[in-house]
Automatic annotation (TrEMBL):
InterPro entries: Crypto/Photolyase_FAD-like_sf, Crypto/Photolyase_N_sf, DNA_photolyase_2, DNA_photolyase_2_CS, DNA_photolyase_N, Photolyase_Class-2, Rossmann-like_a/b/a_fold. The gene is phrB. This is Deoxyribodipyrimidine photo-lyase. Belongs to the DNA photolyase class-2 family. The keyword Cell division does not apply. GO terms for biological process: photoreactive repair. It catalyses: cyclobutadipyrimidine (in DNA) = 2 pyrimidine residues (in DNA). It comes from the Archaea. Residues 19-146 form the Photolyase/cryptochrome alpha/beta domain. Its cofactor is FAD; coenzyme F420-(gamma-Glu)n. One of its GO terms (molecular function) is DNA binding. Keywords: Chromophore, DNA damage, DNA repair, DNA-binding, FAD, Flavoprotein, Lyase.
Amino acid sequence: MANAGRIHWLNEKPIGRETYVLYWMQSSQRVEYNHALEFAIQRANERDLPLLVLFCLTEYPEANLRHYTFMFEGLVQTKKSLEKLGIQFAILKGNPVDVVHEFARDARLLITDQDYQKLQRSWRGNLAASVSCPFAQVESNVIVPVENVSGKEEWSAATLRKKIHKHLDEFMHPFELSTLANSSLAIDLDSLDPNDFERILKNMDIDRNVKPSPTYKGGIHQTRKKLSDFIADKLEDYAEKRNDPNLDFLSGMSPYLHFGQISPLEIALKVQDAKKGGSTAYMEELVVRRELAMNFVYYDQYYDSLHCIPDWAKKTLAEHRDDFRQYIYTLEEFEQARTHDPYWNAAQKEMVLTGKMHGYMRMYWGKKILEWTDSPEQAYKIALYLNNKYELDGRDPNGYAGIAWCFGKHDRAWKERDIFGKVRYMNANGLKRKFDADGYVEKVASLEEKFN
């Protein structure tokens, strides 16, 4: 049953034509633990109507061949799962506002899933005003809906934690999809076939220079296998070993969460049920830290620029703007991993090659970009550009929050230093104290040799 707290009506239009219920799937690209899909099935059954699921393929800003390939690998499996439920899955290329508007003409009700960034929210706003049927948005990409937790941007994890934990009992419970009464498979539609995604992508104006990841493959089957292995082999020692990139005790769930191929609720329930030593630490990352990022992007319109950092960070960085920098690199030098620092270069190479940089190294990576550029503004742009281009989980709230953190967001003032001012500082000696940093360089070199 779709929790009422997850449902938000975007308009007050009268009921539309009794042809079908339309679910515009965009950010929750899955069947399992999809509250928007469950709500759509419920409403279709109430009116004895079929349910049509629509996905809009658009040339999304900064998305490239790596991102689209991973996404399509997941959509292939999603299509099969929907068809087993008697639900037709239509994939059409075009501006989502135009495509969805056309299909909504015959819909009794339009339903979509929730996301947080400016572009997607503008799509929904335009559709809410233009469609002639009711339009509902259902939250399925966080444990607790953003607006239920807080009505404002939160200062840090400390201010969000109590608020979010207060709602966990209400929203953190398992559910199974209802059975759809009326199949929509007989509806005649000219849909793209996700199995033919290579041909589809050839006809799109996207960057093909960033190749698909050789280590991450999309889809619910791959996701669940990776999650199962993590819980069985790594969760117990997650808290102690997560910051060592040589051991790789992270779950690797962020690319799959980014594309909505798995629900954070499913992950949370399985981690909680495992009752292992690292469960508490992992839940802090999955629930509090991840949903702090959603809160940030939802409430701060400047989430993609340096304007988003707190006033104390702006002030201290401005005061140290003209400090001497021993090293200054261009975007090209950063992108090609041509700095003096072998640890930074290894992190950049790992990201470029695999589509995923170890989380601890990403913090160091971002801090050093700030240190080795002419200005904080330039550093912020470079970090975002590289993160969004190469990371499978870039271009989303966690990516924006992670970059902003390197510049003082969701953090406090520290000891004052050159260039950084009071923004938290990291250096290579700190890496060496935590793990075998030279071993990490060798590990990445082995990946290069294997995949290049």
